[in-house]
Amino acid sequence: xxxxxxxxxxxxxxxxxxxxxxxxxxxxxxxxxxxxxxxxxxxxxxxxxxxxxxxxxxxxxxxxxxxxxxxxxxxxxxxxxxxxxxxxxxxxxxx
Length: 95
Known about the structure:
Elements: H1 8-19, H2 23-33, H3 36-53, H4 58-65, H5 69-81, H6 84-91
Helix pairs in contact: 3-5
């Protein structure tokens, strides 16, 4: 995460997220926190990350998810240089 995002409020949010222990509470929390379009965008990016790690090409991902090439490219860069998607995907192989 970019250092400019790290502060006491962000730490509090992250602690709240990692304290969620079941799916229903998770849905409730994010339903309160985010708009439907924000949640759909996040789930789309996560699906793009899964498909990229499975070797899918941009055209296939675009047709199956509706993601733009810019979104796919950004997720691809995060997979290449970041660790968030990779960590979440490796911990949740059954997703």
